[in-house]
Specification:
Protein name: L-alanine-DL-glutamate epimerase-like enolase superfamily enzyme
Number of strands: 14
Distance between the termini: 43 Å
Largest sheet: 10 strands, mixed
Keywords: Magnesium, Metal-binding
Radius of gyration: 21 Å
Helix content: 25-40%
Pfam family, one: MR_MLE_C
Bound molecules: magnesium ion
CATH class of the largest domain: Alpha Beta
Cofactor: Mg(2+)
InterPro entries: Enolase-like_C_sf, Enolase-like_N, Enolase_C-like, L-talarate_dehydratase, Mandelate_racemase_C, Mandelate_racemase_N_dom, RHMD-like
Number of domains: 2
CATH superfamily of the largest domain: Enolase-like C-terminal domain
Shape: globular
């Protein structure tokens, strides 16, 4: 597939009006901020145990707040775990003035404009992740203008989405704590539990899965996530060893860019294969679908450049007939998963809650799509307090 090329070369024929004239509204202000959310305890997945990364202690956020002539506003964000946040912020604030005077409803055109502004540093990775903050803000704004939650603006297939918990199953916790967290999550009404695996000690991985499976019972939905730490041989061996546990999926068994290896595993195992969270463009995800590498596609809207490219992926994934389990960012993905016709799971993380004034509701193992317009989020005073730098282009008409 050559989607990447076909979606970003703009056809400017017919663009006679000055930007914004058609709808009578214009972007008048763009505030871009860099904030760091501290985590209570350092978090480790398999990449720490194999020495590739340090424990995660904070998450960097690039917030975008966009206001218009008619007094509407939108809030969007991108994020980085470990390095990259300040670079993303630097790129975002450099391209932000390109939005001034534009019609905020023409989101796809504005996405393309911002990509071309920074095309010299690429159409994936940090450059497009920086743009995601603006794209999400524009979708939020469009939902607020329509008086509809983002999910309804797109059109839903369900009002609630099956939700699983990840934050209780990290490798930085001893097995007893993981079992206790799983039991607490089940009691609190979560729909599934994901455990981290991928340690150099394969037997320790299997022991954790066995202990949690015994604690939650055979029928409860369990997934595992190896965070790319197996090679193809280990992936097959571990995949076979995990088959008796009846897992919903095995996530990132192999390197994120080994689409062919994932395809071989998906063909060899009964347990579904999930991957995609590390990919940062539609084209990379399209390759997973083309090679039949996944049973569950795991795109991350802020990582692929925002909601605009994510919607392109939803169409491709639907056509390929795969299930959907977006990575992280439940505040955005609950809306996008509700709009997906096939099976969809959303990942429940409590980590980001201090950033918002609102809370997402869990009911009967599922996350309820918020009824508030747009994303249904506003930044908390705490998020403002964690903000270390802000740049404003134009004039921001509201706070
Ligand atoms: Mg993962």
């Amino acid at each position: 597939m050559t989607l990447e090329t076909s979606t970003v070369v703009p056809d400017l024929s017919g663009l006679h009006l000055g930007a914004g004239e058609a709808a009578g509204d214009r972007i008048t202000g763009v505030r871009t901020s860099l904030a760091f959310l501290p985590l209570g305890n350092p978090i480790s997945d398999a990449k720490v145990f194999t020495g590739r990364q340090k424990p995660l202690t904070e998450i960097a956020f690039v917030f975008a707040e966009i206001t218009t002539e008619s007094g509407l506003s939108g809030l969007g964000w991108a994020y980085s775990k470990r390095a990259g946040g300040p670079g993303m912020y630097a790129h975002a604030r450099e391209v932000a003035p390109g939005l001034l005077g534009e019609d905020p409803s023409d989101i796809s055109r504005l996405w393309t404009k911002l990509v071309w502004a920074g095309a010299s540093v690429g159409r994936s990775g940090l450059a497009t992740q920086a743009i995601a903050a603006f794209d999400v803000a524009l979708w939020d704004l469009k939902g607020r203008r329509a008086g509809l939650p983002l999910a309804k603006l797109i059109g839903v297939h369900r009002d609630t989405v099956a939700a699983y918990n990840t934050s209780g199953g990290f490798l930085s916790m001893p097995i007893e704590a993981v079992v206790e967290n799983a039991q607490r999550s089940v009691a609190n009404g979560i729909g599934g539990i994901k455990l981290k695996v991928g340690q150099p000690d394969r037997k320790a991985d299997l022991a954790r899965v066995a202990a949690v499976r015994e604690a939650v019972g055979d029928e409860f939905t369990l997934m595992v996530d190896a965070n790319q730490q197996w090679n193809r041989q280990d992936g097959l061996r571990m995949g076979r060893a995990l088959e008796p546990f009846g897992l919903e999926w095995i996530e990132e068994p192999l390197d994120a860019y080994d689409a062919q290896g994932h395809a071989q595993l998906a063909a060899a195992l009964d347990t579904p294969i999930a991957t995609g969270e590390m990919l940062t463009s539609v084209a990379e995800h399209a390759e997973l679908l083309r090679l039949r590498s996944v049973d569950y596609l795991q795109p991350d809207a802020p990582r692929v450049g925002g909601i605009t490219p994510f919607l392109k992926l939803l169409a491709l994934a639907e056509h390929a007939g795969v299930s959907l389990a977006p990575h992280f960012a439940m505040e955005i993905h609950v809306h996008l998963s509700a709009a997906y016709p096939h099976t969809a799971w959303v990942e429940h993380f409590e980590w980001l809650e201090p950033l918002w004034n609102e809370r997402l509701e869990l009911r009967d193992g599922r996350m309820v799509v918020p009824a508030r317009p747009g994303l249904g989020l506003s930044l908390s005073d705490q998020a403002r307090a964690w903000t270390v730098e802000t740049t404003t282009a134009g004039t921001l008409s509201v706070n």
